[in-house]
Design goal:
The structure holds two protein chains of two kinds. Chain A is of the alpha+beta class. Chain A contains five helices and nine strands, in the order αααααβββββββββ. Classes of the chains: A alpha+beta, B mainly beta.
Chain lengths: 195, 475
C-alpha cells in the first residue's frame, strides 16, 4: 500500500462521522496526554505529531472540528485500530491534541531538538498573565513505578511570557515532561533516545 | 528408503505463514530433504526502511521447516554470504556434530562453502533454526521456524507461525557491544534495570531497531491472518529478536497457552498476553466466537511499537477497522513462569543431583565489553563437566541490571526454582529469562544427550558475543 493511499485512508477516517460522542463537561488535557503516550499514538502520527503513517495532528483543531476529531477516534478506519476508549477518555485525548499548538489558551511547550538524545532545551510560552515560577520534571513511567531526572528550574527570557531551561534524559524511550507553573500542570509527551 | 525433496520458497516479506502438514509424499517419507541457501537480499519491511540483509532461500524469516516426529531430515546448506556461518537447530536433541555451533561442534561454513546436516528432529514441538556463526549474521535475517509435529497434540482448525523480529541499526550493535549505545529500553512494564536506575545513571547495552516486524513485514503491510467463526486457532509464536523481550496480545481475546519452547505445559493456562524473551516460543490458542477484525500486537514502549502488529480477521472483514490494544500492559494478565508452574513453599532441594554447578552472571557496566559467568568471559569460562546419565543441576544468580535469556544447546531442562522458591510443576524449556538485579534460577536436566560439547549461553546476541557463554562437556 502506498503512503498516499494510507494517508487518504487515514484522512478519510478523520472526516467520517459515526456514533455519538458526548462533549465532556471538563475534559482533562493532562489525562489526554497520558493516554496518547500509553497507547503509542506517536508510533503512527510521528514523535512530534507532525505525521507519519497517520496524519499530522499538530494544529489539527484548525483543520477539523473537535466533534469530527472525536468521531475519527471513536470509529476509525483501518489501518488505525479502534481503541477501547470511553467517551470521556476520547474527550481528554481531543482536548490534548487540540492544545498542542496552544489552542484553548494553554501554554505551549516545545523542545529543541524535537527528537532529543540525552538532553534538550525546553521552551514554554504562556499566554495571558506571565507565571512567577516554572519547573520541569522529566518522568519515565515504568509500570507502577517511575523514574525522574533532576527537576529543572526554568528562567524567563527577555519576554516574560517565554521561559526556558535544559532538561536531561538518562536513557532513550518514552518520557513525559511535567511542567509545573503557579499551580498549573502541563504534560509534554516526548520520545527520547539516540536511536 | 523413500525420500521426498522439496524446497519451500516463501515469498519474502509478505508471507502469511499458515502452517500446513507436509504433503502425503513428504509425510510418509523416512527422510525429508531440504535445501537451505543463505544469501544477501535487500529487505524493505516498512516505508523508508531498506537494509542489506541475509536470508535463507530469499525469505525473511526463512521458510518454515516441518516434519512429523520420527522422520529424519537431511538439510543441504550452502553459504552464499560473505561471512562464515553455521546453522543451529534450536531446541533439538541431536548428534553433537549436527548442532551447528561454529568453532565448537563444527568449523564455520565459509563463504561459498556448504555443509549437510542430517538428524532426527526432536523433541516434538515448535523449534527453530538460526545462524550460529558467532557473528551478527543471525541478526541480519538468518532465522526461521522448525515445527516437529507431535501426534499427541489436539488438532487445530488452522495454525499460523508468528515470528516476531526486528531490524537492528547496524552501528548500534557495535555501540551496544561497547556498552555505550544509548538506545531505548522498551519493556512497557519497566525492565528491571530501569526500576533500579537513579537519575544520572546511563544505559548503554541495548540495540536500536529501525523496524519491528511480524513474519517479514511491518504493520500495516503485514499479511493478515484469515480465520473463520468457530475455528480453534493455534499460534506458534517465536521471538526472534535477539536482545529484547516482547509482549504479544490479541485484542478482544484471551490466549490459551499450551506449550513453552515447544514442550507441553503440565497445566495449560489462559492469559491476556504472552511475555516472550529472546529465542523463546509459546503455542497459544484462541477460539473465534464472532465475526470481526482484531490486532495481534507486539507491545513495547518503543516509539515504533505499533509496527509490530498483524490483523486477524474473519471472512468478509478484510476492510474492517481492527480492534486494537493499548501499548501499555499495566493491569494486563501476562504469562509468567511462576503462573504456569505454580510456586511451592520452600527452596529446591538439589542434594540428589550428581553434578551441581552455579554461575554468577556479571559484567555489563556502562562502557564495558564484558558480560561474565563467574567473572570470566568465553572461552575462559568454567565448564559444566558431566558424564552420560548424570542428574545435573545448574543454578544462576544474576548480578547484572538486565534479564538474561539463558539457553542450553542439545537438551531440554526443567526450571525447578526461581528467586529461591521451588516450582510445583517444573517448566520444560531450552531458554529461560533469569531476572536482573539478584534474580536466581535453577535448572535440572539429565545428561542423556549424545556426548559432546553443548553450548550454554545468554541468547541476547550482544551478551553472547561479549562473553556470557560456557558449555556442558560430556567426559
Amino acid at each position: 500500500m502506498s503512503s498516499k493511499t494510507l494517508c487518504r485512508l487515514v484522512g478519510a477516517s478523520l472526516i467520517a462521522l459515526g456514533g455519538t460522542v458526548h462533549a465532556a463537561v471538563a475534559a482533562d488535557v493532562n489525562a489526554g496526554a497520558t493516554l496518547v503516550q500509553s497507547n503509542g499514538c506517536a508510533g503512527c502520527h510521528g514523535a512530534t505529531f507532525q505525521g507519519g503513517i497517520g496524519p499530522k495532528l499538530y494544529g489539527i483543531e484548525h483543520r477539523l472540528k473537535r466533534e469530527r476529531i472525536a468521531a475519527a477516534i471513536k470509529t476509525p478506519k483501518a489501518p488505525m485500530p479502534k481503541f477501547p476508549f470511553s467517551d470521556g477518555q476520547i474527550s481528554d485525548v481531543v482536548a490534548y491534541l487540540t492544545s498542542l499548538d496552544g489552542g484553548g489558551g494553554r501554554p505551549v511547550a516545545t523542545l529543541s531538538p524535537r527528537n532529543p538524545g540525552k538532553s534538550a532545551v525546553l521552551t514554554v510560552r504562556f499566554p495571558g498573565t506571565p507565571p512567577k515560577h516554572v519547573v520541569a520534571i522529566p518522568v519515565m513511567q515504568m509500570g507502577a513505578s517511575s523514574m525522574t531526572t533532576p527537576t529543572v528550574v526554568l528562567h524567563p527570557t527577555g519576554d516574560p511570557h517565554v521561559w526556558t531551561g535544559t532538561v536531561a534524559f538518562s536513557m532513550g524511550g518514552p518520557w513525559t515532561i511535567d511542567v509545573k507553573y503557579d499551580g498549573g500542570l502541563l504534560k509534554l509527551p516526548v520520545t527520547a533516545g539516540s536511536m | 528408503m523413500r525420500r521426498s525433496s522439496f524446497l519451500r520458497t516463501t515469498i519474502a516479506g509478505m508471507a502469511t505463514m499458515v502452517l500446513r502438514s507436509p504433503g502425503e509424499a513428504a509425510a510418509n517419507a523416512e527422510t525429508v530433504d531440504y535445501t537451505l541457501v543463505a544469501r544477501p537480499r535487500v529487505f524493505q519491511p516498512a516505508q523508508g526502511v531498506r537494509v542489506n540483509a541475509l536470508a535463507y532461500n530469499g525469505a525473511l524469516p526463512g521458510p518454515v521447516l516441518r516434519v512429523r516426529h520420527g522422520q529424519r531430515v537431511r538439510v543441504r546448506y550452502r553459504n552464499q554470504t560473505d561471512v562464515p556461518t553455521a546453522v543451529h537447530w534450536h531446541g533439538m536433541t541431536l548428534p553433537n556434530a549436527m548442532d551447528g555451533a561454529a568453532g565448537v561442534t563444527q568449523p564455520p561454513v565459509q563463504a561459498g562453502g556448504s555443509f549437510v546436516y542430517e538428524f532426527a528432529p526432536g523433541p516434538p514441538g515448535t523449534r527453530w533454526y538460526h545462524d550460529h556463526g558467532n557473528g551478527s549474521a543471525e541478526m541480519r535475517g538468518l532465522f526461521g521456524m522448525f515445527v516437529v509435529e507431535d501426534p499427541r497434540d489436539a488438532p487445530a482448525d488452522v495454525e499460523y507461525a508468528i515470528v516476531l523480529h526486528d531490524v537492528p541499526r547496524v552501528n548500534s550493535i557495535e555501540a551496544a557491544r561497547n556498552g555505550v549505545s544509548g538506545a531505548p529500553m522498551v519493556d512497557p512494564l519497566g525492565s528491571p534495570e530501569m526500576r533500579q536506575m537513579r537519575a544520572n545513571d546511563r544505559m548503554g547495552d541495548e540495540v536500536a531497531y529501525v523496524a519491528h516486524c511480524i513474519n517479514g513485514a511491518s504493520y500495516p503491510g503485514t499479511a493478515p491472518l484469515r480465520v473463520k467463526v468457530g475455528q480453534r486457532v493455534r499460534l506458534r509464536v517465536l521471538n526472534a529478536n535477539l536482545t529484547q523481550t516482547r509482549y504479544l496480545r490479541l485484542a478482544g481475546h484471551r490466549l490459551h497457552v499450551t506449550h513453552a519452547d515447544g514442550n507441553p505445559l503440565q497445566r495449560p493456562i489462559d492469559v491476556d498476553a504472552l511475555r516472550i524473551g529472546a529465542a523463546e516460543r509459546y503455542d497459544a490458542w484462541f477460539e473465534v466466537r464472532k465475526p470481526g477484525a482484531w490486532l495481534l500486537q507486539g507491545l513495547s514502549s518503543d516509539p515504533l511499537a505499533f509496527e509490530q502488529a498483524v490483523v486477524v480477521h474473519t471472512e468478509g472483514m478484510e476492510h474492517a477497522t481492527p480492534d486494537g490494544s493499548a501499548q501499555s500492559i499495566a493491569g494486563v494478565d501476562y504469562f509468567t513462569y511462576e503462573q504456569a508452574a505454580g510456586v511451592g513453599a520452600g527452596a529446591f532441594d538439589a542434594s540428589s543431583a550428581t553434578v551441581r554447578k552455579h554461575f554468577t552472571l556479571g559484567g555489563g557496566e556502562y562502557g564495558s565489553k564484558r558480560w561474565t559467568m563467574n567473572g570470566a568471559v568465553w572461552p575462559n569460562t568454567e565448564k559444566v563437566i558431566v558424564a552420560s546419565g548424570n542428574s545435573v543441576v545448574v543454578g544462576f544468580t544474576n548480578k547484572t541490571d538486565m534479564d538474561h535469556p539463558m539457553h542450553l544447546h542439545g537438551h531440554t531442562f526443567e526450571i525447578v526454582e526461581i528467586d529461591g522458591r521451588s516450582l510445583v510443576r517444573p517448566l520444560a524449556k531450552d531458554v529461560s529469562l533469569v531476572r536482573a538485579n539478584g534474580g536466581t534460577m535453577t535448572w535440572r536436566f539429565r545428561a542423556d544427550s549424545p556426548p559432546g560439547r553443548w553450548l550454554l549461553h545468554c541468547h541476547n546476541e550482544v551478551h553472547m558475543m561479549d562473553g556470557m557463554m560456557t558449555e556442558v562437556v560430556y567426559r
